[in-house]
Amino acid sequence: MRNLTLLTDFYELTMMYGYFLHGKKDQVATFDLFFRPFEESSFCIAAGLDQAIEYINNLHFTDDDIQYLRETKAFNDDFLNWLKNFKFTGTIRAVPEGTVVYPYEPMLIITAPICEAQLIEPALLNIINFQTLIATKARRVCHAAYPASVLEFGLRRAQGPDAAIYGARAAVIGGCTSTSNVLCAQMFGLPPKGTHAHSWVMSYPTELDAFMAYADTYPNNTLLLVDTYDTLRSGVPNAIKTFDYLKSKGYQPIGIRLDSGDLAYLSKEARKMLDEAGHSDCKIFASSDIDEYVVQALKQQGACIDIYGVGTKMITSNNTPSLGGVYKLSNLLDNGVNYPKMKISDNPIKVTNPGIKTVFRIFDSLSGKALADLIALQGETIDTSKPLTITHPTERWMQKTITNFHVEELYVDVFVDGKQVYTSPDVYTLQANCQRNLDRLWPEYRRLSQPHNYKVDLSDKLYQLKQTIIAQELSQNK
Predict the structure, then answer these.
(1) pLDDT by residue (tens digit) across 205-231?
(2) I need a labelling partner for 355 at 20 to 30 A (CA). Which of 109, 192, 222, 434 fits?
(3) What's CA 282's distance to the chain center, in Å?
(4) Residue closest to 116 by CA, chosen among 15, 230, 202, 236
């Protein structure tokens, strides 16, 4: 495991030093990691927890790290000596990967001595923001493609090796069937997918020679790239000859791949040619700068595509290349007393929710579909035997009363007193969790464009606490 302890912003270390000097290093703080609203999706698919666990477990300062910090001349020897035995001793609660989460709902809740909680902020945001973003983008692409399947093909366009590896994993959580990335497949128990490139075809005297050679090499897994020269005049006819040859030997070819040109037109024409030649059982695979909007357009035009290979626009989340995830202090513990904290801003989107919290998801008992989420204070309970009235976080006149419902808390304990108590399931189990979450949403909430507003409300106790703190802070800072 890599030691990412110095994957932090320098001001985290300077704050730690200040806490150390002023006797605050052991004060217990709670931080929430959540994201703010963004345009492309009304909700996200949580991802990245597995790598976050690995990061926390390996958190320590090496001798080289401490020597480097000494050379910055920003810290005294007492502090640097204290860092030699540094490790995470706190508690982390989180939503499991694959969970549908909405803006302002904490994906991770960290309670730890304040130096520990401050240090891990940048790395956790780096890990969770990116992987959640890619899982969310993959979910959108897979939603648009259904019932066609989607493969992740983003390795060569990802912004670095880690983005390629963990982005591919996140894409599978979001719904992709597998990845072309062999290292990712090895690390996470996925079947690597891929056939051949244009260079294979170009390396043989003729296209047919190349196809026959590939068929002889992989007779049980022949999928041929047909657009190297002329898709309809050369590629598909030569593929048909190759498929005839394979079937005469008792093998079942997989199909063809289109990687350029008008994918709607070419797929429809290729489908006709394959069907007329007796190969209606062969699939058509398409790639070439595809995202959910391209998929929607192709389907509207009647494209005959069974499998999509999606790379650049998914692994980079092309339309929205970053997630606005933040990490905010919500509580301080002093002499056994909790002091809820919140950020107040002239920009309403940046105002945070105070206190140690939990999130309840409320389900209709008849349909099993999610009705709303309620952000509440830790320790609050919901009596499911009585009607429940939920209220908008700011417009308190907007209320809804729910009957015949059940609730689920979203969090699992990940670390307790510094010890890992949760083990991430395999990637396909997380993908199944994602699909289960999506299946429990009404279709109106899953729309790619202008989805219906899902209710994420505050409990009365949390709302009153928030208003009390705002009033106190404003009166003290006039």
Answers:
(1) 999 999 999 999 999 999 999 999 999
(2) 434
(3) 33
(4) 15
Local structure of 161: helix, strand or coil: helix
Q: What single-letter DSSP state applies at residue 426?
A: P
Amino acid at 358: T
And the tokens for 137? 């983008």
pLDDT digits (tens, 9 = 90+) for 343-368: 998 888 899 999 999 999 999 999 99
Which amino acid, one-letter code, is at 124?
A: L
**Sign of the alpha-carbon dihedral angle for 163, 164, 165, 166:** positive
Reading the block at residue 157, the tokens are: 């366009």
Q: Give the contacts of 33 (CB within 8 A, at least 6 positions apart).
A: 106, 107, 108, 109, 110, 124, 125, 128, 325, 326, 327
pLDDT of 286: 97
Domains located in the chain, CATH noted: 10-133+327-476 (3.20.140.10)
pLDDT of 324 higher than 90: yes
- List of E strands, 392-465: 399-402, 405-409, 412-416, 419-420, 455-458
Numbers of helices and strands, H then E, in the chain: 17, 21
Predicted local confidence at residue 213, as pLDDT: 98
CB atoms within 10 A of CB 417: 10
On the question of a cis peptide bond just before residue 237, with omega within 30 degrees of 0, the verdict is: no
Task: Kindly report, residue by residue over 140-198, the tens digit of the pLDDT.
Answer: 999 999 999 999 999 999 999 999 999 999 999 999 999 999 999 999 999 999 999 99
Mean per-residue pLDDT, 237-250: 98
Segments of 215-288 assigned E as strands: 223-225, 255-258, 283-286
Find tokens 């989805």 and name the residue. 451
- In the chain, the N- to C-terminal Cα span, in Å, equals 50
By CB atoms closer than 10 A (0-12, 13-18, 19+), residue 232 is middle
pLDDT over threshold 80, residue 1: no
Question: In angstroms, rounded to a whole number, what is the distance separating the alpha carbons of residues 273 and 284?
Answer: 12
Residue 105 CA, chain-centre distance (Å), reads 15
User: Within a 10 A sphere around the Cβ of 8, how many other Cβ atoms?
Assistant: 18
State which H helix or E strand residue 182 sits in.
Answer: helix 182-188
- Token digits of residue 251: 């093998």
Mean pLDDT (the chain, rounded)? 96
Q: What gap in Å lies between CA 373 and CA 458, rounded to an integer?
A: 9
CB neighbour list of residue 165: distance below 8 Å, 6 or more residues apart: 181, 183, 184, 187
- pTM of the entire structure? 0.96
Cβ distance 329 to 29 under 8 Å? yes
Name which of 193, 195, 231 is nearest 240 in CA terms: 231
Residues 6+ apart with CB under 8 A from 451: 42, 444, 445
What are 83's two structure tokens? 């860092």
